[in-house]
Design a protein that fits this description.
Elements lengths: L4 H25 L18 H25 L16 H47 L1
Helix pairs in contact: 1-2, 1-3, 2-3
Length: 136
């Protein structure tokens, strides 16, 4: 019914964190040309904004697909109350239970999968750096 709402809330929070991280990274890496310094040398690294963009993609993609699926089955409608379960108090309790169980478990599993992706990417980057340092 509304299980996609929980990952949607997480996606909004991750988007805000992504924008803040991106702004912070741009501020740090901006060259200080006024002082006559050269631009900082680029280092192979996976930034937090890049990692958060992966999580954003996973969350927003899932939210959009689930919202469309619920719309297709008539559980979400384009007029108030938008969620058909909110029209009846008994259905509302069932909807909140689904959000607390299915929605939270989906959000946790997507975030855990993202953590595995980040760990694998970091391990691959470390192995490439090690191989490059041994060649030189």
């Amino acid at each position: 019914m509304a299980c996609f709402v929980v990952p949607a809330v997480e996606a909004v929070a991750v988007t805000a964190a992504y924008l803040a991280a991106k702004k912070h990274e741009q501020k740090i890496s901006a060259p200080k040309l006024a002082n006559g310094n050269d631009a900082p040398k680029a280092e192979a690294n996976i930034t937090w904004s890049k990692r958060l963009s992966w999580l954003m993609g996973l969350l927003w993609g899932g939210v959009l697909l689930l919202a469309f699926e619920h719309f297709w089955h008539g559980e979400v409608v384009p007029f108030p109350p938008f969620l058909t379960a909110m029209a009846d108090p008994e259905d509302t309790a069932e909807m909140l239970h689904e959000m607390a169980t299915v929605g939270v478990s989906m959000a946790i599993s997507v975030t855990a999968f993202w953590g595995i992706i980040c760990a694998a990417a970091q391990a691959k980057l470390a192995s490439v750096k090690k191989a490059l340092s041994q060649e030189v």
